[in-house]
From TrEMBL:
Gene3D superfamilies: cAMP-dependent protein kinase regulatory subunit, dimerization-anchoring domain. Keywords: Nucleus. Belongs to the dpy-30 family. The lineage of its organism: Eukaryota, Fungi, Fungi incertae sedis, Mucoromycota, Mortierellomycotina. The keyword Nucleus applies. This is Uncharacterized protein. InterPro entries: Dpy-30_motif (IPR007858), DPY30_SDC1_DD (IPR049629).
């Protein structure tokens, strides 16, 4: 399937909006590496430390609302929800609380100002 997508014929049938979204994603990708869940967990195992209390910064701070809306779901979640969620899950594994969902929910609420808030209008 990927070979089909690299053909000029495929490029001609895609809408201009979809081509623009792909270009914006490529630009976003060139701003820095997007870390996968496995990379984050491996880095944690290797003893790397986080740059802030939760280990995440807001990668959307420099993006406009239109750029954020144009992002595909996976990169959006990888850059917003997953970093904080992974840190919360690590905390769960370490603390082993009686009510893990409540503990995780409180963690996410307490760290929601770190990342994941969309910029104003």
């Amino acid at each position: 399937m990927d070979s089909e997508r690299s053909t000029p014929a495929y490029d001609n049938i895609r809408s201009p909006a979809s081509q623009e979204r792909e270009r914006s994603v490529k630009v976003e990708g060139s701003r820095g590496p997007v870390r996968s869940i496995g990379e984050i967990l491996n880095a944690d195992r290797e003893g790397s430390t986080a740059s802030s209390a939760t280990g995440v910064t807001n990668p959307l701070a420099d993006l406009t609302k239109a750029e954020i809306d144009a992002m595909p779901i996976r990169p959006y979640l990888d850059q917003t929800v997953l970093p904080v969620l992974l840190e919360g899950m690590k905390q769960l594994a370490k603390d082993r609380p009686q009510n893990p969902l409540e503990h995780l929910g409180l963690y996410l609420l307490n760290h929601s100002d770190t990342i994941g808030r969309s910029p104003g209008p």
